[in-house]
Design goal:
By secondary structure, this protein is of the alpha/beta class. The protein has one domain: 3-Layer(aba) Sandwich (Rossmann fold), CATH 3.40.50.2020. Helices cover about 20% and strands about 30% of the residues. The protein is built from three helices and nine strands; from the N terminus they run E-H-E-H-E-E-E-H-E-E-E-E. A six-stranded mixed sheet has the order 4-3-2-5-6-7, with helices on both faces. A three-stranded antiparallel sheet has the order 1-9-8, with helices on one face. The longest helix has 21 residues, at about 15-35. The protein binds inosinic acid. Inosinic acid binds near residues 109 and 154.
């Protein structure tokens, strides 16, 4: 049985993701080129990997990328309280960082990581996210570049998981109710 049968509806198609990633890549290229800069892309594992791979095809700058894996401490609502599971291999001092996320939901993750990178001496920190759920935000943080704003659905695919499954789907969709 195909796991696609577990999807109730597709919210963002493969073609839409490809087209929007191209637009974002071109916008990022223009914005950084204007200032004669090239960002170090910091992608958050594991969800942002497919988006990173799509986006970098369209950034025509001398970029580099690296990965971080973070998790929030259980039972805490503090915004700055995240645990680093895998840190960057690259020094970020004086670098212009572009944080790559799959989805900004409450905003806790990107706010905490952004603050941490700034504290470690990054020259600038911007955020690019494939998806944004503005209705769920509890932190005063917004992405500089947003692929798609979505309503308050729990979504899977294109990197996003439910219990580590569905990350490899080439589109973003909503699971059938009986799959939870
Ligand atoms: P935030 O810290 O609440 O903004 O959450 C960000 C993280 O929560 C994302 O990087 C995802 O890993 C996860 N997340 C939030 N919403 C969804 C969703 O709809 N599907 C899958 N994962 C999600």
């Amino acid at each position: 049985m195909s796991i696609r049968e577990n999807i109730d509806k597709v919210l963002v198609t493969e073609e839409q993701i490809r087209a929007r990633s191209k637009e974002l890549g071109e916008q990022i290229t223009n914005d950084y080129a204007k200032e004669n800069k090239a960002p170090l892309l910091v992608a958050l594992l594991r969800g942002s990997v497919p988006f990173l791979a799509e986006l970098i095809k369209h950034i025509d700058l001398d970029i580099q990328y690296d990965f971080m894996d973070v998790t929030s401490y259980e039972g805490t609502r503090s915004t700055g309280d995240i645990k680093i599971l895998k840190d960057l291999d690259t020094s970020i001092v004086g670098k212009d960082i572009l944080l790559v996320e799959d989805i900004v939901d409450t905003g806790r993750t990107v706010q905490a990581v952004k603050g941490m990178l700034a504290n470690k001496g990054a020259a600038s920190v911007k955020i690019v996210t494939l998806l944004d759920k503005p209705s769920k935000r509890v932190c005063d943080v917004n992405a500089d570049y947003v692929g798609f704003e979505i309503d308050d659905y729990f979504v899977v695919g294109f990197g996003l998981d439910y219990d580590q499954r569905y990350r490899a789907l080439p589109f973003v969709g909503v699971l059938k109710a009986d799959q939870y």
